[in-house]
């Protein structure tokens, strides 16, 4: 299988040019050496098995990271039109995310203020602008206000204005919707404005969700994350799919607090290629991969971008929300075919290869073997990321 390379010129889609990227992204791309000049540095690093299998560690991550800081729940691009709403199972919590008529993204608990019933049970994007509870038909506006109560004459001393949906503190950064799950005052200190600007430059904020899929994986969230932080497995695990498109060259890595930006040259990369065609698609030459705190992965491809939120559910259970973003909907049959093939390819690579590798790793790790996991120089970003997480876990 080979990556799709023949996007037709007749679509309205716009490719990302070098000049479309932020100054910081451009500067990092300029640092990528030619493939032949790349130097790999060996590394000696380990982590104990228990970081993937221990309940104590899992609970510490929940308390000090996932409930302590705002976490990504979805992409704003999923709600393209004002007046739309979607239900999400986020970290075990039923949530609603809406785009109001004033174009504001809001996050609510998906629980009716009468007796808690979920208002929306499916995962489709709804555009009707109102939500009616299936139980006793209380109706809410897209902004969370309670607007209709069946037989309201039967409720004494009842004030509708006090029974709107419970809203969670939230913010959109670079097209990612973050919410504070425990409803405390949100602390955005670990998120990066530079990364948000980069995401906007990559088209995540105004992209189109071509496809999305949810995966329930029997693996710790970090076991699922690791392949997106290292190039070591690419030519091996992906030998039959995309492995031939990449080399073992080191990434250019920048850290913004606990957020990692990696950019690498594609096979045969030479820095001079960057200036050969200023109107050309920069993602034909380089691949961006981000791990945004704490559990969001962005990976660019030539004509689409993958976004994944890895939601920890239990020590050995992770829900992955995968989104394939294109600059817009396909406008021709040919473009639709290209997007469809791209989507099938990426689902088979991530789902059938990376996620499968995570599940079979977790099976072995759960026996206690190996007692420690060892990382090489091609996996250094994993260690950098864990150091950042460990610093937060060590806080009182
Ligand atoms: S639980 Fe929603 S109207 Fe009764
Ligand atoms: Fe991979």
Account of the 3D structure:
It is a single chain. This protein is of the alpha+beta class. It has two domains: 2-69 and 190-393, Naphthalene 1,2-dioxygenase Alpha Subunit, Chain A, domain 1 (Alpha-Beta Complex); 73-179, Rieske Iron-sulfur Protein, CATH 2.102.10. 22% of the residues lie in helices and 27% in strands. The chain contains eight helices and 20 strands. The chain has helices at 23-30, 50-53, 55-66, 193-201, 221-225, 234-237, 333-365, 380-393, and strands at residues 45-48, 71-75, 84-90, 93-99, 105-109, 125-126, 130-132, 139-141, 146-148, 167-168, 170-173, 176-179, 208-217, 252-256, 259-265, 286-292, 296-300, 305-314, 317-326, 372-375. It has a seven-stranded antiparallel β-sheet. Strands 6-3-4-5-10 form a five-stranded antiparallel β-sheet, with no helix packed on it. Strand 3 (84-90) and strand 4 form a beta hairpin. The longest helix has 33 residues, at 333-365. Bound molecules: FE2/S2 (inorganic) cluster and fe (ii) ion. Residues 112, 114-115, 117, 133, 135-138 line the site of FE2/S2 (inorganic) cluster (FES). This is Aromatic ring-hydroxylating dioxygenase subunit alpha. It holds the Pfam family Ring_hydroxyl_A. Residues 70-179 form the Rieske domain. InterPro entries: Rieske_2Fe-2S, Rieske_2Fe-2S_sf, Ring_hydroxy_dOase_asu_C_dom, Rng_hydr_dOase-A. Keywords: 2Fe-2S, Dioxygenase, Iron, Iron-sulfur, Metal-binding, Oxidoreductase.
Summary, kept brief:
The chain is an alpha+beta fold.
